[in-house]
Each structure stands twice: as C-alpha cells, then as structure tokens.
Amino acid sequence: MKTELEIFTPFAKKSRFTERIEGHNCIVYTRVSSKEQEQGYSLETQKREIENTCKQSGFTILAYFGGVFESAKTDERKEFNRMLKFARTTKEKVSHIMVYSLDRFSRSGANAIYIANELRNENIKIFAITQPSDSFTPTGKMQQNMQFLFSEYENDLRRQKSTAGMKEMLLNGYWCAKPPIGYNQITRKKRENLTLDERQKITINETGKLIRKAFYWKAKDRLNNAEIIQRLKNSGLNIHKQKLTKILNNPFYCGIMSHNLLNGEVIEGKHEKLISKDIFLLANSIKSRNATWKHSKDFSDIPLKNFLKCGVCGSSFCGYLVKKKNLWYYKCNKTGCKCNKSAKTLNELFVEKLNNFTVMEKYIEPVKDEFIKLFTETAKESVNHIKVLNTRLQDTEKKIDALEERFATGEIDKDLYQKFISKYKAEKLEINTELDSLSFENSNLEKGLEKYCQILTKPSLLWASNGYKGKLELQELMFPKGILYDREKSDFRTPEINEVVFAMAEIARDIEGKDKGDLCSFNIKSPLVSGRRLELPRLTTYAPQTYLYTNSNIRTLLCKFTVL
C-alpha cells in the first residue's frame, strides 16, 4: 500500500547530474607548448600516465586529442576546440576529460574557468591525474579555479621574461621569431661557448630567390601584383594577392627589422639581405634619399631608349648625345650593327604610330557601348566558369568537414588525416585564387574604359606633353613588348598591342567605315590584314568575343593606370 507521499513520486524532479557524474566514458587531451618541453614532460609521458590512471579507475577511453605542440595562453586552438566539440556532440556520453595537469588543459585563467563551468553544466568533468579533485563540489571547484588562475599567472611571468629577452635580441639586431617566407633559420642549441651569431643563422632559400625577382619586377619593370603573381606561379610559387602585398611591404627583406616589441621603431638587422634598400623603396613607390632621378631630365629627349629594339638583331637601342651638335641619337647596343638614327626622327615616327590609334571624339561613346556589349557577352562564359568553381569549392569544403569529422571520431588516424587535409586545403586555395582572378566589377570596366578613351582621343599629344616617366608608362601600356625599328623601310613594327587599345581602335574603324559606306565588319575582320602600316597581334582569326575572354590580361589592362 503506497503512502500518501509515494503517490506523488512520479512528479518528482530528478538530478540532471546523476547519470553523467557516474559515467566512465572519457577522452584524453595531451599538449606541450614547444619541442623544448619534451624533456621530462613529453606527450608520450602524459599519454602513458593518463592511460594508467584510466585503467586503474575503470575508465573507457573514447578518443585521443592533442598530441601536438600548442600554446595554452589562448583557447583558440584547433585540437583543443576539436576536443570540446567531440565531448559535447558525441553519441556516447562523455563524463570526463582526462589531462595530465590543469595547465595542460588551459593557461587562460578566467576563460578556462568559464569553459570548465560550461562543461560542468553539461555534466563533463575536467580531471587532472596529477591534481585530482572533484570539481562538482564547492571545494574541488575552488581548487580547480585557483589552479587555472595560478597557471595564467605563471604564464604571464614567463611571457614578461621572454618578452624582455626577445626585445633585447631585437635591439642587438637578431631576429627573435620565425623568419618570413624566403628564409631558412638554422638555430643551434644554446651553449656557453657559442655567440648569438653562431647560434642563429638566417639564410635565403630557393623561394627567397623568386621573391627577390618579385621585388625587381615591382621596382624596375613596374608590373602590377596580378602580373607578378602569375609570373611566380609560372616559376612554381603560388602566392595569394594578400600574401604578396604583405611580402612587398616587409622591410625584413632589405635588412630592416620591424616588430611590435619595438613599439614603432626599426632596427638594422644582422641577417642576410634579400634586396637593397633602394629596391625595397622603389617597390613601395618611395623615393630613396640616396636615389637621384637624373633620367627625368637627361633622358626626356630619348624616351624610346631600351623600349625600342633593332629589327635586325633584336637588341635594345640606347641613347647618346652629340655634344658638338647638341643633338640626341638612338643607337643599337649590339657591336657592329651600326644602326644609328636621329632621336628627333624616331620620336616623330613614334608619334605617327600613336596617331594610328586615335579615335575621333564623335565615335567615343559608340565605341564604349560596343566594347561593353562585347565584354558583357564574353563575360557569360566567365560567369559559367565561376559557377563551376564555386561548386568545386563547396565540394572541397564538404570533403574537409567530412575528413575532420572522421578524424574526430577516430575513424582515421592522424597520418592519413594530415595527408588528405593538406591536399584539400591546397585545392581550396587554388580555387579561391582562380575565383579572385575572374572577379571583375562593372564599375571598374567603365572607369577603365573612360581612361582609355581619354588616351585614345589624343594619344600623340598626351605622349608629347608628358615627362619621361609618363612617356614610358604610355609606351608600355600601348605596346607591352616594345617596338621594333626596321631601318630598311624606316618604320616601326609592333610585336604586341594592348588588347583593349587594339579592340577599341578596330571598333572605331568599323564605325567609321560604315559611316563612309564601307561594308566591312569588325566582327569578321582578320588581324592578319595590316591596316595603316600596323602589325597586328598574331591570331589566325579575330572573333572579338573569344579574344576578349581568352586573354587573361584584359581585366588587368583595364585597371593599369598610374600617372597618366
């Protein structure tokens, strides 16, 4: 016979902690901050001691986490967060997270206390085998919290001492961290008979040699970042555009050290320089105090030097002054070629060449409209390619998530995980890089075309009125590979014409031809048929839509303006 109170038993609330506190499923987390801590405090030691404790206490280990070198000063750790996710989401209920000591779990003080409290609310206990306590009791909870705070305090003391030592190294010209890409660091163990120079040696590797070329391409050849990235990729070095910008802005490569511990100061480093200070400043468009721009004055009469090449031997032309006549001449650099020509004559011939690309103002708007129409039409294929890339990107991200889940559940081991995760991440980076190269805003198209229209309405006048540097930029913009001089015909040949300039000039001719009753069409005209003594790009046929799409430089060319 039930008593009066027993009748109400079904309505009684049970403790939500009972089942999980008494559980014996656990996961293991091991960690060291650096390789130096392996002596006497290794990952193997932690794992072995934890396994012995679990065996003695009858715990079942569901999974292992950590086993890597991770700092515990923050809780933004990959293995740490993977472990917490597993503990909260696994189908088999986890009751304990086993660690060697509480400072192996975290040294973040208040944040560690918060995480431990959240885990307690989910009936998960952090159990340190060298500091056993029941954190579900007030006393055990206080002991654990105090240990977390002491771990943070100890970490802060170490950081203070370490920071002071690192700053002293920097002030003496020695780098105190991992060197940037392009360098290898050879560090020997600290001994009393070794100086800092002997213990630390930073050398340039093969990647550094490619980065050196990137600086010269930026400083000397005035290439933009997209062109530099493509050249580096062709040489076997894949770098994202943000990474390249970071490299070009890092003075470490010219021997200058900049570090947040120096609080805004810079120090002359004792490491090997990749480039000179002048090259670094030029690459960042900063004029060196030691640099002199004599060519801005001395070479204004011979802007085609180096840009102009001999049609016979292919050598570049240099310029020289005949002082008696006070006249400038161009001369082929190859000994015995004997190709000399008055600078005034060749400059005037180049002006005529520029006039061949002049677009009358009344045709500017129709040319712009037609170009945008063609570009938009060809962009459809690009859009379809972007959709394909986005689909591939989603599939790759799903593979990464699935791989991480399989690793978290112990379905695959660490070696297999690392083998495939690096492959998928490399594939993801490649897809993102290609997506960046295909992205192009319509506003950029219109702005770029507006600039080209300003040039093509008066290219010869713009060239003549500009200074030496402006002339160079206009020349290289119009004819990327320079021009060849045929002395027998006394004419220029152009190996390559800027794709945008060529297309806009052809559209203008087509419109002008229709006004005059000429039935020729720009859409079917072959570039092999020279017009107005122009040597056009070497294409078997000229279909504007295909040409605009397949040329990877078209977007870059529409944005390539500086002083013009």
Written account of the structure:
This protein is of the alpha/beta class and about 575 residues long. It folds into four domains: about 15-160, Resolvase, N-terminal catalytic domain (Rossmann fold), CATH 3.40.50; about 195-285, Hect, E3 ligase catalytic domain fold (Alpha-Beta Complex); about 295-350; about 360-555, no CATH class. About 50% of the residues lie in helices and about 10% in strands. The chain has helices at about 20, 40, 45-55, 80-90, 100-105, 110-120, 140-170, 195-200, 205-220, 225-235, 240-250, 275-285, 295-300, 345-355, 360-410, 415-440, 440-455, 460-465, 470-480, 500-515, 545-550, 555; strands at about 25-30, 60-70, 95-100, 125-130, 185, 200-205, 255-260, 265-270, 310, 315-320, 325-330, 340, 485, 490-495. The chain has a four-stranded parallel beta sheet, sandwiched between helices. The protein has a three-stranded mixed beta sheet with strand order 9-13-14, with helices on one face. Strand 7 and strand 8 (about 265-270) form a beta hairpin. Helix 14 (about 345-355) packs antiparallel against helix 18. The longest helix has about 50 residues, at about 360-410. The termini are far apart.
Quick summary:
The chain is of the alpha/beta class and 564 residues long. The protein is built from 22 helices and 14 strands.
Strand content: 5-15%
Order of neighbouring strands in the sheet with most strands: 2-1-3-4
- The mean pLDDT is 77
**How can the largest sheet be summarized?**
4 strands, parallel
Q: What distance separates the N and C termini?
A: 102 Å
- Which class of secondary structure composition applies to the elements? alpha/beta
Domain unit count: 4
Tally of separate helices:
22
Q: What's the shape? A: elongated
Number of separate strands: 14
Question: Uncertain spans, ≥5 residues at pLDDT below 50?
Answer: 291-297, 519-553
Helix content: 40-55%
Radius of gyration: 35 Å
